[in-house]
Amino acid sequence: MVFNMCFPKTGGNALTRTTSEERKKNLEIEKMIRKDKKQQARQVKILLLGAGESGKSTILKQMRIIYSEGFRLDERKEVRQVIFSNMIVAFKIIAEEMRELGLEYENAKSPDYEKVISSAADIGPDDIVGTNTRYMTTSNTTTPISIDSLLEIIFPATKMFCVLGYRSERKKWVHCFEGVHCLMFVAALSGYDQCLVEDKTANQMQEALLLFESIMSLTWFKSSSIILFLNKTDLFKEKISEKPVSDYFPDYTGAANDYKAASEYFANKFRSLNRTEDREIYVHFTNATDTNLLKLTMQSVQDTIIQSNLTTLIL
Question: Could you give the angle at the alpha carbon of 278 between the alpha carbons of 275 and 305, nearest 5°?
Fold first, then answer.
């Protein structure tokens, strides 16, 4: 039995046309890849890092106020619940401390108010309305957060990351930021006499020093510019006369109420942890709640970042 099979004629022109179109698409894709690589190479990446309770979140909020349009009315309304929650928590702590110390209220009605506050339920994370802004409660998250709203704010082609989390989680994400151009590290000067939220036996300042030392020893950040914010200077000034630094750091030999000597003492402690000879640590004393002061500080930071990455920016 014989089958007659017919096959369509394949013209050479059609095959050539298909190959040409595929080559054109490949060239377009390669061009896009090269363009993206060039843009990424010119993009300055900034990592904001620090120990717990150092003021990182406040600094981010201030940057939004300084460099963008600030917070919308609906965002400000949504954060009221968090503010009320923080106030209740603070009142509860004060009331508990007064009971332990055996202190009495000056106002006769205060015990009645205490009962009302004590009966108030704590507001948990599920009760907080989510927005694009990160609102802090008493707990921390452990996931790196890309602050996309700050793109192009400090200067063009900038991407900033803020990392918040428990110290046990840091090793999981720190390598993700290899090669960042600038590392901003925040430490609270006022934490020299305070313990960590997650570890009541650990000192906040000692923890900040340990974290900073571990960061300085990582190969991933050897070429990064280092900017140190020694934050909460206002609280530090108020504390040092009543709680001498030498009580917590015996090697401090300055006067108890000498703010300049005490602040430089801690600045030098951080500087001494730098293991790279040709890398400078730029130190700024900040109060994150003072918008004008932080604005002046950030102008200086901009100059530092631009000078340190001038070659990258002009390519």
Answer: 105
Angstrom distance (rounded) from CA 220 to CA 267: 23
Which tokens is 141 given?
């998250």
Helix axes 80-101 and 110-119, enclosed angle (nearest 10)? 120
User: Which residues are annotated binding-site positions?
Assistant: 53-58, 231-234, 288
Q: Which two tokens stand for residue 148?
A: 């996309």
Known binding residues for Mg(2+) = 57
Residue 289 is encoded by which pair of tokens? 């709640």
Over residues 200-214, the pLDDT tens digits come to 788 999 999 998 998
Annotated binding site for GTP: 53-58, 231-234, 288
Structure tokens at 181: 């151009």
pLDDT digits (tens, 9 = 90+) for 120-179: 665 544 444 433 333 333 333 333 333 333 333 444 445 555 555 455 555 566 666 666
